[in-house]
């Protein structure tokens, strides 16, 4: 059954979208990642204009991260104060991101920009996952140098002013740190159609040094606000949010995520992380191929004068 | 209000064309199977029947030319260029006004017989699509030969963009020439199937029918055709365009609600 997407202005088979949501949902349930960094490029492959893929993904991630956030909230896994600082940075970052996005769209370079940044980003993610997966396989040899390095980093962050106490996370750090992390993630989220958890969570662990039990819930807290802001501004300035597309992906996604969480306890996590790394590499390769190979049609038409 | 204005304008055009040829007995009469094409969520194209009567039928040497023209629209075209091994949008040209839909259907086999006729009427046709010029006019300091060369380059460039535009629109089924597509029924009657593709632009279309004898216009008629969005997708599109921030706010609310519902559904398990 094909359905016409009113904003993307293409007809797509409804079951393709539902199963896409389901598939990416399973992956995000298995690995605890949002999946925006996979969904956005796949939507582009399906023929959704890149700008609309990004705006719509912000809307979808808003729904899925709200659902996840409520779960962590009930278990007390959210550091509201830390989340508020991350959010403040994120709101500024995502607003700036949408502004940059609008400028790039108006000069006709947004599609190129999205593709090239994704190639770099996906390659980085895939190599990180591969490295992590391979390290886990040979974890018998603990590293010696790691300790001293971490201490040095801590000293650097201690020099920053505006220190604040974060009780839930038992931290006393400069408030500039969560603001900066939130800002960077906000820019990325608004421009690339991702939640940014896979950038934010390592930053929270290694830069902010937050305890593990508050990391995921607090990052979801930030993602809810940032994707809400990105959705609102992308719809307002760029008419880039297709609510029909977003809701179809959400419907598949929530079911997929539940399945993924259930299967997660039964499978070999290391093997599957390698599998995910290969999927990410394949998507990265597909995008790179589109950029490198001479396109069949060099010309393109857009309505209106830009 | 604007819609009413366009309707009045089109009707006036239609009337003017119908009335113009004073030799009333030679008139061509045309009608469409419907005047209204709703484009809804499941729209996968539409077929229309255009039928009519052209009175002089015995000799059979009069030709019929039908032009279906969509609303005028401006376009920006870009051409991909290779930069450091990567393909990205490079040169851009503007088309300030071209129909969103343009099909020519004729009763003749030959391809370009109507081009002359069209040129004389100064109407939009495939040949006179105008593409903006990007580069500066030739400087007077340049030699005449150099100026000539620049001019030629510009023209080639424009021609490349023009033919790309026609090709792309043609691929979408929006532009096309369909020679020998008019079916004659006996001496006086004729009928044509108009195929409208999915992704049809909305707006007021004009279907013009010309009866041409020995290269001269002997009779003509114009009929408006309304292509409009219908159903849920029309509502969403109009909402997103007109009240974009309110739409964004609603999108946020719906997503939040979906998140809460999803959480409730699976919270137990």
Distance between the termini of chain B: 55 Å
How far do the termini of chain A sit from each other? 36 Å
Tally of DSSP helical segments of chain B: 5
- Let me know the average pLDDT of chain B: 78
Element layout with pairings:
The complex is a heterodimer of chains A (306) and B (269).
Chain A: E1 2-5, E2 10-13, H1 14-31, H2 36-46, H3 50-74, H4 80-106, H5 110-137, H6 146-158, E3 163-166, E4 171-174, H7 176-192, H8 197-206, H9 212-238, H10 243-264, H11 269-292, E5 299-303
Antiparallel strand pairs in A: 1-2, 3-4
Helix pairs in contact in A: 1-10, 2-3, 3-9, 3-10, 4-7, 4-9, 5-11, 7-8, 7-9, 8-9
Chain B: H1 2-19, E1 29-32, E2 36-39, E3 46-53, E4 63-69, E5 72-83, E6 86-99, E7 102-106, H2 113-121, H3 144-171, E8 175-178, E9 183-185, E10 189-196, E11 203-213, E12 216-229, H4 231-242, H5 244-267
Parallel strand pairs in B: 2-12, 7-8
Antiparallel strand pairs in B: 1-3, 3-10, 4-7, 4-11, 5-6, 9-10, 11-12
Helix pairs in contact in B: 4-5
Structural summary, described in words:
The complex is a heterodimer of chains A (306) and B (269). Chain A is mainly alpha-helical. Chain A has one domain (2-136, 149-292). Chain A is built from 11 helices and 5 strands. In chain A, a hairpin with a 4-residue loop joins strand 3 and strand 4 (171-174). The longest helix of chain A has 28 residues, at 110-137. The model of chain A is unreliable at 143-152 (pLDDT under 50). Chain B has 269 residues and is an alpha+beta fold. Chain B folds into 2 domains: 2-229, Immunoglobulin-like, CATH 2.60.40.3880; 231-269, no CATH class. In chain B, 34% of the residues lie in helices and 35% in strands. Chain B contains 5 helices and 12 strands. In chain B, the strands form 3 sheets. A 6-stranded mixed β-sheet of chain B has the order 2-12-11-4-7-8. Chain B has a 4-stranded antiparallel β-sheet with strand order 1-3-10-9, with no helix packed on it. In chain B, helix 4 crosses helix 5 (244-267). The longest helix of chain B has 28 residues, at 144-171. Residues 14-24 of chain B have low confidence and may be disordered. At the A-B interface, strand 1, helix 3, helix 5, helix 9 and helix 10 of A face strand 5, strand 6, helix 3, helix 4 and helix 5 of B.
């Amino acid at each position: 059954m094909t359905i016409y997407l009113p904003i993307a202005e293409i007809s797509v088979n409804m079951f393709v979208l539902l199963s896409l949501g389901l598939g990416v949902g399973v992956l995000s349930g298995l690995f605890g990642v949002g999946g925006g960094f996979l969904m956005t490029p796949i939507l582009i492959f399906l023929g959704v204009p890149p700008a609309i893929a990004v705006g719509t993904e912000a809307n979808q991630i808003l729904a899925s991260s709200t659902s996840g956030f409520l779960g962590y909230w009930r278990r007390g896994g959210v550091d509201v104060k830390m989340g508020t600082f991350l959010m403040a940075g994120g709101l500024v970052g995502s607003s700036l991101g949408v502004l940059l996005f609008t400028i790039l769209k108006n000069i006709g370079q947004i599609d190129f920009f999205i593709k090239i940044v994704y190639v770099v980003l996906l390659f980085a993610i895939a190599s990180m996952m591969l490295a992590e997966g391979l390290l886990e396989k040979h974890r018998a040899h603990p590293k010696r140098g790691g300790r001293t390095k971490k201490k040095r980093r801590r000293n650097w962050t201690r020099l920053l002013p505006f220190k604040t106490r974060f009780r839930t996370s038992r931290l006393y750090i400069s408030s500039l740190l969560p603001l900066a992390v939130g800002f960077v993630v906000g820019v990325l989220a608004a421009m690339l159609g991702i939640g940014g958890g896979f950038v934010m969570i390592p930053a929270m662990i290694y830069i902010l040094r937050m305890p593990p039990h508050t990391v995921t819930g607090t990052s979801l807290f930030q993602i809810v606000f940032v994707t809400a802001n990105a959705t609102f501004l992308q719809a307002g300035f760029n008419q880039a949010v297709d609510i029909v597309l977003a809701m179809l992906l959400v419907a598949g996604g929530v079911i997929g995520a539940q399945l993924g969480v259930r299967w997660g306890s039964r499978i070999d996590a290391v093997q599957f992380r390698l599998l995910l790394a290969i999927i990410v590499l394949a998507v990265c390769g597909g995008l790179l191929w589109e950029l490198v190979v001479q396109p069949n049609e060099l010309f393109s038409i857009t309505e209106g004068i830009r | 209000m604007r819609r009413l204005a366009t309707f009045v304008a089109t009707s006036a055009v239609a009337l003017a064309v119908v009335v113009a040829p004073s030799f009333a007995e030679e008139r061509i009469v045309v009608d469409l199977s419907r005047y209204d094409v709703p484009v809804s969520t499941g729209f996968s194209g539409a077929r229309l029947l255009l039928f009519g009567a052209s009175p002089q039928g015995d000799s059979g040497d009069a030709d019929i030319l039908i032009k279906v023209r969509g609303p005028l629209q401006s376009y920006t075209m870009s051409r991909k260029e290779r930069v450091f091994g990567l393909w990205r949008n490079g040169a851009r040209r503007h088309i300030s006004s071209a129909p969103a839909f343009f099909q020519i259907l004729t009763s003749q086999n030959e391809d370009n017989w109507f081009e002359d006729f069209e040129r004389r009427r100064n109407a939009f046709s495939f040949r006179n699509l105008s593409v903006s010029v990007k580069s500066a006019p030739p400087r007077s300091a340049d030699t005449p030969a150099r100026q000539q060369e620049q001019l030629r380059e510009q023209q080639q460039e424009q021609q490349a963009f023009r033919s790309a535009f026609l090709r792309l629109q043609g691929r979408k089924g929006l532009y096309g020439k369909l020679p020998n597509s008019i079916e004659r029924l006996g001496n006086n009657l004729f009928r044509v199937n108009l195929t409208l593709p999915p992704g049809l632009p909305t707006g007021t279309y004009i279907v013009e029918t010309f009866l041409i004898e020995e290269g001269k216009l002997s009779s003509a008629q114009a009929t408006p055709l309304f292509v409009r969005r219908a159903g849920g997708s029309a509502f969403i599109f109009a909402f997103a365009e007109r009240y974009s921030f309110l739409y964004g706010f609603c999108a946020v609310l719906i997503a939040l609600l979906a998140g809460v519902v999803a959480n409730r559904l699976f919270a137990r398990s």
